[in-house]
Amino acid sequence: LAKTTQPISMDSYEGQEVNITCSHNNIATNDYITWYQQFPSQGPRFIIQGYKTKVTNEVASLFIPADRKSSTLSLPRVSLSDTAVYYCLVGDIRETDKLIFGTGTRLQVFP
Amino acid sequence: GAVVSQHPSWVICKSGTSVKIECRSLDFQATTMFWYRQFPKQSLMLMATSNEGSKATYEQGVEKDKFLINHASLTLSTLTVTSAHPEDSSFYICSARGLASVTGELFFGEGSRLTVL
Question: Could you give the percent of chain B with pLDDT greater than 70?
Fold first, then answer.
């Protein structure tokens, strides 16, 4: 999987929009971008996946520029329950036998 | 969505004993399973990848004789920590990839917290 770089931590307040950017300069043609959320003492949970442009689901949006060297996870109107670690993974998860997690971004939401 | 279940969710054992952790895919066939270890405030560290019916592929630095992985069926993989020591205390997480995963979504278990006294 392509190496990724994310901010170590971010702070926000309830009701704000949070954007977490992930850099992946070495992304390959077949690679997808997938984001996971992890709460303490739980396994990661799938949030969203995209290949290019914009993807939106009931939880988040994923923005991917044309060069695909970065991506931004957007969480609209965060709540306290969104406090978690967010991981960006880049690669062809359908094929890879090495699924390596980066450092992730620890999001803290304050009231 | 698909469900991956781990058991036990937490276990405490004495130093020198062996502990087995099970990872089951409840509603799909998992051709590949990944085992991770996570220490407090750190990211998930890949330990090994196992394909059904094949020997597991271990990451560098992970002792295959200490962390025995068996993936005997398409719905079950086990991780056995042999002769556990306090430094093996960690949060162990498995992940499963389905037989016909279109989007590549991986499903993770709830994790198993091991404490070795």
Answer: 92
Of the candidates B87, B72, B71, the one whose C-alpha atom is nearest the C-alpha of residue B34 is: B71
Start-to-end CA span in chain B (Å):
37
**Exposure class string for B82-101: b at 16+ Cβ within 10 A, else e:** eebeeebbbbbbbbbbbeeb
Alpha-carbon distance A46 to B98, whole Å? Answer: 14
Tell me which chain A residues have a C-beta less than 8 angstroms from the C-beta of B109: 43
Nearest to A107 by CA among A41, A27, A14: A14
DSSP H or E stretch at residue A30? none
- Residue A52, pLDDT score: 92
Residues 6 or more apart in contact with residue A57 via CB below 8 angstroms: A48
Does B43 contact A102 at a Cβ distance shorter than 8 Å?
yes
**CB-based contact, A98 to chain B, within 8 Å:** yes
* Cβ-defined contact of B107 to A46 (cutoff 8 Å): yes
Q: Residue B52: what residue type?
A: E
Q: Looking at A19-33, A58-72, A89-103, which range is the least confident one?
A: A89-103
A51, A78, A111 from B45: Cα distances, Å = 25, 28, 32
What pLDDT does B113 receive? 97
